[in-house]
Amino acid sequence: MTVVSGAVLLAALGVIWNIDARTGRLPNIITIPLMVAGLVWSFDLAPDWYHHLLGAALGYGVFWAVEVIYRVMRKRDGLGRGDAKLLAAGGAWCGVFALPVIIFLASANALVIQLAKGANGDTRFAFGPYLCLAIGGVWLIQQLI
After folding, report:
1. Whole-prediction pTM value?
2. Spatial CA neighbour of 17 closest among 78, 89, 116
């Protein structure tokens, strides 16, 4: 079951990555079912399924709060709601304790790559691909441990 689940997760992350990189949008039609699939997978296979439920809730809530605070402080959009839904999916698949690792890895990769491209504080870029890489990597490492 883990192989099938992993194939679903990694395929969906690949599609999301591609769409966000091209359009700057994270499609609800993929992110929300991916979150639900992660919860179903955790209910079926993980003895600590509640960590995954909490991961989905906190994943969404934390990025929602960052989005709102940024908008209030900077008077413009920064992080999109799709990023919150994608992090919720990551929390559903990887659990609440993986959220800091996912956020750190995605942020560090985004920072290094965007700075290498010459980005500055006003540069807009899709954060979803970095989240996809971090979620997929963390999930794979969890399966190996």
Report:
1. 0.93
2. 89
